[in-house]
């Protein structure tokens, strides 16, 4: 189920047949929410991303899969401004956000849920959620969002006064997602929401992700090692391999791709 | 923010604590003539230590920025405020009016604090983008630079230091400022805005990812911390009556860092107690003279080894649970014995 460590056979650049294999699940007519064009990122001498281009239509769930060190987390961190791009452009809702600071990007509605349940352990659940609404000034609207978060994750309401460090892994992930929702995002980037969570809770979390997308129209870019699950809930997928996109296409098509199956879906 | 906050009911009212401490300060200063001067001296030292430790706790404990330059900010405040009072006191223009002297002293303390805060801003803006060890090195460098600068300014005494500072610091001033420092920093950290300091400390990447401007938080913490360090420096100068640049060296910074670590990072009460303890310890150990510093260091090592997360970092809930378990166990044993 988890990604294979052995490198995937080099896939010669032929995404075209894949894209044409089936009618694309995501609607082409939808306006593009996020457009990434030829993104290069390096940490010192080591290049992490080598020419990533991807599109996420408004209201869609798009997934980014790939093994360890493929550059998935780097991609998200660059999109949210935590890591600077060496070259390439990022457009969000038509605006160039490549050079913006993280808080300016969040203010525009692009929110990032970092990898590994990054909640603030010393703060209570309540305070964590409040921090999520840090940039919003309208108290009534924030209260409304808070209610939406509680409907989505009733568990959080039960644990409101508890410090976040004492929550279980699954609850922390719910809190991290809930906290991101508090910023009223138009676009959510989730980094490995299934990481280190009880298997029973993984499906719950994924159901909630779909629910956020359906009921609130939030576009989602999902990074996952659990490729099977990610392909199930997404409409379009990109396969990242050592810093470049090795394959892309509608998720149902990729799910049946023999090479992908061998490399990421456990045969 | 918008939801009811029942926990504020449980928390001890900081305003009440502030009022009580101020009243205590007034009481002590009213009877200061009758009290042992040695006791008053130690109390003053303690108060200054509390201001320094609590202000560093905002930077290191709550915001998680390891600073080794707190004594540097203290020296900026000390030199500015002592410079002002000494230069003007020379002609004694105020006469002996206590009221005029107090206002004058307060003004000089505030200017010293603002000067230190400005120094904090100048050091903070370029260096707070650095993390961990690098920041510690930059602040260490700042502390050394400021010391060398003061050593080479002749009008304020150079390496010989500044002498003849008027003795304005009283127990009242120190207790008032200590209470004010604790109150301001406690209120700041527990405000909705201030939870961002803890968020920056807990997880910087997550904080940035949800839109916190962590660099700004770090700079605010640094500037506020430096302000109170500057005030503490001013109080120190008008208490010791002579200051030398070497009195604010690296060792002094380490001493303050020690109070914060010993008290427990981000634990205000613990840090206050640690500041009091570390001021008292050398006094208590005075009778054994030569071995005093040896024993002091040994005690510190033992404390750090046995309580690495802070001397006063107790898990009260777990302790109560343990006690409850013990009592029920003994009760059932007794019942069985009968």
Automatic annotation (TrEMBL), chain B:
TM annotation in the entry: 42-59, 71-91, 103-125, 132-150, 170-189, 219-236, 256-281, 288-306
GO cellular component, one term: plasma membrane
InterPro entries reported in the protein's UniProt record: ABC_transp_permease, LivM-like
Any one GO molecular-function label of the UniProt entry: branched-chain amino acid transmembrane transporter activity
Origin species: Cephaloticoccus capnophilus
Superkingdom in the source lineage: Bacteria
Keyword Lipid biosynthesis: no
Subcellular location: Cell membrane
Protein name: Branched-chain amino acid ABC transporter permease
Topological type in the membrane: Multi-pass membrane protein
Protein keywords: Cell membrane, Membrane, Transmembrane, Transmembrane helix
